[in-house]
Design brief:
Elements lengths: L1 H4 L6 H6 L1 E3 L3 E4 L1 H23 L4 H19 L7 H17 L12 H20 L19 E7 L16 H8 L3 H8 L1 H8 L6 H8 L6 E5 H8 L12 H11 L6 E6 L8 E8 L3 E9 H4 L9 H5 L11 E2 L1
Parallel strand pairs: 7-8
Antiparallel strand pairs: 1-2, 3-4, 3-5, 5-6, 6-7
Length: about 325
């Protein structure tokens, strides 16, 4: 749903049908759910036919489906997706199954060390990482196929983000970059809000409905910065792994920048384990350390709108009771 909504080629009428009732109800529609399940089914089926094919018509049909599948993803320019991965998969498919259909997976039986290596890398590590995602990088665990992985949101009060200028950075702050490229402050503000909007559209972003009010008293007084963006700026690399911009990076930045209590708050969310019902979150202050931890059951989040409503909306109002209490939610 989110990929097609963000696509430069999908027509508006189709984008709107991806939601229950655009723009009042932004939960995924039955059409969006059906397309998602069909995509999953397709991704499971064509590799099976590639393995079973002998280089003839079945193999050719499976290769065509594979080409269309990856072209569809790449053509929609999904946010954060390394497009070159799709190109490499297409090349690998045509090379292995098109050019060398005689190669058989059964031939690995004569190379036991290779079998063990592949089993560890392709089965053991991903399986362990999916049951215990906090202990393995989402790349090694292939958590991108699970649809969620660890992330963080960093909140800077007022202009305190300027303290990051004390670091040797790989790039300027995002707002500084936008101010050089966009015509006015309104356009800059709109561009800055694209990341929070993208985050909340995804189901795992709804965890912030519970965690954000426990992080800050008045969200309007803080500048939102995705952990991925911050890691790219101060480390020069991110690639989506939330473990790269967790408490360890917060502590390292604090040692050099010296944020006052309340100036920098970070919300760190761990991905949902395989068959696990919830996602864990942590709220930390750069100066004071961890303030609170909790978990949110994802079944209830399916009924949430991207924006807080009802009692959750009240929790975002300045001066509401219960803000920043320590303990467990």
């Amino acid at each position: 749903m989110v990929m097609l909504t963000n696509s430069p080629v999908v027509p508006r009428w189709l984008r709107e049908r991806l939601f229950v009732h655009y723009p009042d109800d932004m939960r995924p529609s039955r059409l969006a759910a059906g397309m998602a399940h069909m995509g999953t089914l397709t991704e499971y089926i064509f590799p099976v036919f590639l393995l079973l094919g002998d280089g003839g018509l079945v193999t050719a049909a499976a290769l065509l489906v594979m080409l269309c599948f990856h072209s569809f993803i790449a053509g929609n320019m999904p946010s954060g997706m390394p497009i070159e991965w799709n190109i490499m998969m297409v090349f690998g498919g045509f090379f292995l199954f098109g050019q060398h259909p005689e190669a058989s997976v059964l031939a690995l039986g004569s190379m036991p060390l290779l079998v063990i290596f592949l089993f560890v890398c392709l089965v053991a590590v991903p399986l362990y990482g999916n049951f215990y995602p906090s202990r393995v990088s989402f790349l090694n665990a292939m958590r991108y196929y699970a649809g969620n992985w660890a992330y963080s949101v960093w909140l800077f009060r007022g202009d305190s983000a300027r303290k990051l200028d004390q670091l040797v950075k790989a790039a300027p702050l995002m707002r500084d970059q936008f101010e050089k490229a966009l015509p006015d402050e309104e356009a800059v503000d709109a561009a800055m809000m694209m990341m929070p909007a993208m985050r909340f559209l995804h189901l795992d972003g709804r965890v912030l409905h519970e965690a954000l009010p426990r992080a800050v008293d008045d969200i309007e007084q803080y500048q939102w910065m995705e952990g991925e963006i911050l890691a790219g700026i101060v480390l020069g690399w991110n690639f989506g792994d939330g473990h790269l911009h967790d408490l360890q990076l917060l502590s390292a930045i604090q040692q050099q920048c010296g944020f006052e209590p309340g100036e920098l708050r970070a919300v760190m969310v761990e991905s949902q384990p395989l068959f696990g019902p919830s996602m864990a979150w942590t709220v930390a202050d750069a100066a004071s350390g961890v303030l609170e931890r909790g978990e949110m059951r994802m079944a209830q989040a399916r009924d949430f709108q991207p924006w807080p409503t009802g009692a959750r909306a009240e929790a975002f109002r300045p001066g509401r009771a219960g803000a920043n209490e320590t303990g467990s939610a």
